[in-house]
Amino acid sequence: MALFLGRLTPDTRSRDLEDLFAKYGRVTRLDIKRGTNSGFGFVEYEDPRDAEEAVHKLNRHVVNGSEIVVEFAKNNGRRAGDNECFKCGREGHWARDCRESGRRDGRDRRRYCELPYMSKYPPSACLRELPLSPLERDQACEEFIASAA
Predict the structure, then answer these.
(1) How far apart are CA 113 and CA 133, in angstroms?
(2) β-pairing, 2-8 with 69-72?
(3) pTM for the full model?
(4) Nearest-10 Cα torsion for 112, 114, 115, 119
(5) What is the spatial distance between Cα 51 and Cα 46, in angstroms, rounded to a whole number?
(6) Is 6 within 8 Å of 68 (Cβ atoms)?
(7) Any idea where the RRM domain is (predicted)?
(8) C-alpha distance from residue 8 to each of 36, 87, 93, 134, 147 (Å)
(9) Rounded to an integer, what distance in angstroms lies between the CA atom of residue 84 and that of residue 40?
(10) Whole-number Cα distances in Å, 136 to 27, 47, 118
(11) Is 37 in a helix, a strand, or coil?
């Protein structure tokens, strides 16, 4: 299972991340892409449970002075082919037309409202559109991730 790593500093080395992520399980792949001011990368675990633990423990962890983002990668961290949907990996349609999530635009808003915290909002509500403070939005996202596991 692949994880996306965001907000990496330009001086972050593969070895730094290998040591950090290896604490949670066997890493099968680590790939860093560097930009001018920041970078991103992917780390892949052999066991999905190890990946879940790494997301839980390392998201917002400080590496080289920067708080990194660790979340599950779309399409398991691999680029889709020219004719593949990046959401489900099947050929013949684009992500915006993917029926995998039950909505034409690919978002499934029902899942947010299944959370106790979000139950006071209508099922059609989008998390970005709700009048939530940043702390409340973070809590809702954490609850959503925990409920999806």
Answers:
(1) 17
(2) antiparallel
(3) 0.54
(4) 90
(5) 8
(6) yes
(7) 1-75
(8) 11, 25, 33, 22, 28
(9) 23
(10) 33, 31, 10
(11) coil
Q: How far is CA 50 from the centre of its chain?
A: 15
Low-confidence ranges of the chain (pLDDT < 70): 75-84, 86, 94, 100-132, 141, 144-149
User: How do the domains of the chain map onto residue ranges?
Assistant: 2-77, 80-106, 109-148
Question: Which two structure tokens, joined as six digits, stand for 141?
Answer: 């996202």
What is the predicted pLDDT for the residue at 41? Answer: 92
3-state helix, strand, coil in the chain (%, to 5): 35, 20, 45
- Tell me what pLDDT residue 40 has: 92
**DSSP β-bridge partners for residue 8:** 39
What DSSP string runs through 57-108? HHTT-EETTEE-EEEEPGGGG----TTB-TTT--BSS-GGG--TTSSTTS--
The yes/no answer on whether domain 2-77 falls in CATH 3.40.50.720 is no
